[in-house]
From TrEMBL:
This is DEP domain-containing protein 1B. SMART domains: DEP. Residues 246-438 form the Rho-GAP domain. It comes from Cairina moschata. It comes from the Eukaryota. Keywords: GTPase activation. InterPro entries: DEP_dom, Rho_GTPase_activation_prot, RhoGAP_dom, WH-like_DNA-bd_sf, WH_DNA-bd_sf.
Length: 574
């Protein structure tokens, strides 16, 4: 910069006249040019935040990525058609920055492709997260090229949807004190005995004093509907515990969970654990099953009767992709989208993520679970089959599997903005752990079976007692590890504070002055939570867009002295 120029972008200049025409001393910035601090580079701390399980996880991830992208994207001066534009960026630069950011983020991982990054930037342009240099957005098509874009002054963050919580469904268990229709009370064998301490001591070798009257109650047999409701209640209770949520109401409508599906998925299976359908018309067509077996067992295809040719395996693969691509609903169903997105927050804890997916997949309709088992098993075998020729010349086989089938496995009915990236993350985890995930969890199955056997036993009931004597004593607490305690303490305390901070930040009914005041009070009281939500000043500045203030022109007459009355001087005296 030549001598006498203005100080721009934080660059120190020598003294001289600025853009406003005034003489500026050395080191002073010209007031006619706004000063914008340089955009900080992408650092590991920017991508270290993990969005855990809970309601509205997709919306939280959307806002998280936007904040990181705005803070990490370098803004510079560019020229286009003999005109200069300040604080903008090229489309290819945005793809580079966002691709690096997603790859280093724990919520997505390094398997995010450049093509997926371009699709996300198209959604950014559609939702006015970015705009072109002429202010156009929504209908413009984003391409990986040299077109110029910029950030709009308004906040692009999404408010959390006010979704009504699902009503809690009360599971009614059989009332053992009620008799069957047409059966009198005399037919139930009840024996009342009053025992003193001497009799009790002879029987049990301990004197405990007077014992109240008791009776034996012969329980009825459980119906199939009772067993199915027990399976549903204990399965959902276990899923809630694994996810670490206080309730499943905001991530799952329990009324849509079919108890019959859970029992069929648990018991109607073959030796490999694949579901056996009662209605064969809902199964995959024979020609699709033959095509899937052909690629899964390549080159030994037992069902193959037609001669092969060059490129035969690619045609077979395309046939399978076309069949699954025309399905109207994904295999994990629209109703369970939120619960599977919630499970993605546990991928850092491998054992918990596997168990959560095991239980969640039990909720699927049997035909969906069978198709998912066969499809994921084929995808995993193709990915690790070294004898199978490449199915694409430009994409690795594993990446091709994820791109081809992720949308038919998981997607949202409302076209969520991050559903493609979330589906790719889930499908990759399914392929790596499909043998564990797609099997029935043995611990859950054994605990439910023991409970069913327990409630069918003959019970001893004492006078005035509401509970059965044979029921095990309630367990109020159990010992956990130090790491688990620290995790529960951190998540249990921070989640309500994060929700409160988010409510203050997204509240559009309060004025900017009141919002700044409340945010300052929150920052003073909970600095760690505030820093996690707003890691840089740029992320905080998104909430308060800058308003261009133009000063009125200085009139020349305003600089003159006010009018003064005429005074006679000596020269006018006679």
């Amino acid at each position: 910069m030549r001598k006498g120029g203005c100080r721009q972008a934080g660059i120190q200049t020598a003294g001289g006249r600025g853009a406003c025409g005034r003489w500026l001393p050395r080191g002073r910035r010209c007031p006619a040019r706004p000063h914008h601090p340089p955009t900080p580079p992408l650092t590991p701390s920017m991508s270290a935040r993990l969005v855990g399980p809970g309601p509205y996880r997709a919306t939280r991830l959307w806002n998280e990525i936007i904040e990181l992208f705005r803070a990490a994207m370098p803004l510079r001066k560019h020229r286009c058609r003999f005109k200069s534009y300040e604080r903008c960026f090229k489309a290819s630069e945005a793809v580079d920055c966002l691709h690096e950011l997603l790859g280093s983020n724990q919520n997505f991982g390094p398997e995010v492709t450049r093509g997926q990054t371009v699709k996300l930037l198209k959604k950014f342009l559609k939702n006015h997260v970015i705009e072109d240099i002429k202010g156009r957005w929504g209908k413009e098509d984003f391409q990986d090229d040299g077109h110029l874009y910029r950030f709009p002054p308004s906040s692009p963050l999404k408010p959390y949807p006010k979704k009504p919580s699902f009503g809690k469904e009360v599971i009614k268990f059989p009332d053992w004190n009620e008799t069957k229709v047409g059966v009198s009370q005399e037919h139930i064998p009840v024996k009342s005995v009053t025992m003193n301490s001497e009799m009790w001591y002879k029987r049990h070798s301990i004197a405990i004093g007077e014992v109240p009257a008791c009776k034996l109650v012969l329980r009825r047999e459980l119906t199939q509907a009772n067993i199915e409701e027990i399976w549903k209640s204990m399965t959902l209770s276990r899923l809630q515990k694994v996810l670490g949520l206080n309730s499943l109401d905001e991530v799952l409508d329990t009324k849509l969970v079919n108890s019959k599906h859970i029992v069929q998925n648990a018991y109607n299976v073959n030796k490999q654990g694949i579901v056996i359908l009662e209605d064969k018309s809902k199964d995959l067509p024979h020609w699709i099953l033959s095509a899937m077996k052909c690629l899964a067992n390549w080159p030994s295809c037992s069902d193959l009767k037609q001669p092969t040719y060059s490129g035969f395996e690619r045609d077979v693969f395309k046939t399978i992709v076309d069949y699954f691509g025309q399905m109207k609903e994904p295999l994990l169903t629209f109703n369970f989208f939120d619960i599977f997105v919630c499970v993605l927050g546990l991928l850092q804890k491998h054992s918990k993520a596997v168990e959560a997916l095991q239980i969640s997949c039990l909720l699927l309709p049997p035909e969906n679970r069978r198709k998912l088992q066969l499809l994921v098993r084929m995808m995993a075998r193709i990915s690790f089959n070294q004898d199978l020729p490449p199915l694409s010349e430009s994409v690795r086989t594993r990446t091709l599997m994820v791109q081809a089938f992720s949308r038919c496995i998981l997607c949202s009915k409302d076209e969520m903005d991050l559903d493609e990236l979330l589906a790719a993350k889930l499908v990759s985890f399914l392929m790596d752990n499909y043998q564990e995930i797609l099997n029935v969890p043995s611990s859950l199955k054994s605990s439910i079976e023991e409970h069913v056997v327990h409630v069918q036993r003959v019970q001893i009931k004492y006078t005035g007692a509401d509970t059965d004597a044979t029921f095990p004593a309630p367990s109020f607490c159990h010992q956990i590890s130090t790491d688990e305690f620290e995790y529960q303490r951190a998540t249990g305390c921070q989640e309500p504070l994060e929700a409160l901070l988010e409510e203050i930040a997204m509240n559009k009914e309060i004025s900017v002055k009141d919002k700044k005041k409340k945010l300052k009070q929150f920052q003073k009281s909970y600095p760690e939570v505030y820093k996690e939500r707003f890691p840089t000043p740029e992320t905080e500045a998104v909430l308060f867009p800058e308003k261009s203030k133009q000063k009125p022109p200085i009139l020349m007459w305003a600089l003159k002295k006010p009018f003064q009355p005429f005074h006679r001087t000596r020269s006018f005296r006679m």
